[in-house]
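Most newcomers find our protein records easier to grasp once they have seen one. A record pairs a protein's sequence with a compact description of its fold. An example says more than a description, so a record of this kind follows:
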Amino acid sequence: MGLTERQRQAALDHTKSKCVTAGAGTGKTHVLVQKYISLLENGVGVGNILALTFTEKAAGEMKVRVRQVLAEKEGERWDAVRDEFLWAKISTFHSFCASVLREFPLEAGVGPGFAVLDEQEAARLREETIKGLIHGNPPAACRDAVIGALREVGAYELKNYIERLYSRREASEAFFAALAESEEGVLDAWQGVVEHHRAKALEAFIGRAGPSIETLRDLAARYPGDRDPGETYLRAAGPHLSETSNAVSALAQVHKDRRFSARMGRKANWAGDDLERLRAAYRVINDCIKDHAGTLSLAIDPADPFTRATLAFLCDLGAVFGAFISAVEAEKRRKNALDFDDLVNRTHRLFRDHDDIVAAHFRDRFRFVLIDEFQDTDPVQIAIICAILGDLTRESAKLFIVGDPKQSIYLFREADVTQFRHTR
């Protein structure tokens, strides 16, 4: 099976990083295989290529396809390539991370010779630990927290919370550590997020409603009376025709008045097309209010009882989650085992804390990184890739990815298809 012209441009050009995006059945994996073969044909060593997939099946199929092509090559050099291919780095992300940790167990803080729990074993361990916390006899240090969390959300939802937090363990632990250090710091961070979203919403609101607000200002200046609901609307809206979030929130309150609608006003009271201009402006502003007023009205009051109750619940949840993590880790240490999330998270931590190891053993080793089904990567996996790649502005030919954001199979594991678009 040959390559189309577009596929040839993608697979055979090694002067720049490439992103191949296409739907199912369009030959993305075939392009990846041809890219791998072309690199070998251009003198790149097998040991200098890292190819990552998201299933063992995909990794196996890629190896078979490459091996079939290599079997047809003749000459001593290709005999050597075939021998070298026995140790080719074509694997899943998790297998690659496991190999990294086995190479540097002391630096990564893992036990040498660790076992890898499959998904069923890891799920069973988490299930038993959660059951022990919620329905058994939790440690005294977190017993009150368990009771408080159960009082707020019940056993079923508490289990879901813990599972969800564990799927984003690093971020969850960082948040609860920040909460334990300073509740006020967390409130400040929340306020910053709220202000950011309010600013974006206000920008979008003004971008759409700005001309209509200007129309209302003009009409309000020329129709100061109160002869019909249209003029009454102008009197009510007039003080709030400025480009601030408070003004928009006040305008939203005006639009709740049942006297005002897109059919208000009597033609006899209006000159020319002014009434139609009023109604059109009202419709636009009303639509914008529906889309953005909720965000613009967001606020966090540290003294509000709901805010305090939320913080109290999060403190309890953090204590329960901490006890859960401690119990799970203790059991994994007893078994000298890691789950799939551990493989990725500990590799990320190793690469983050030991750039010297990355530079000496991975960044220089892998001249090219090829990734299949890139839409299934999560942010932590992308951080690992970026650590290996180094400065992409300098090493602009190292990365080759293929994928289809419509096909993500790992959304439940925090795969983020927006990462695909960002990387592209």
The longest strand covers residues 49-53. Residues 407-424 have pLDDT under 50 and may be disordered. The CA atoms of residues 332 and 338 lie 6 Å apart.
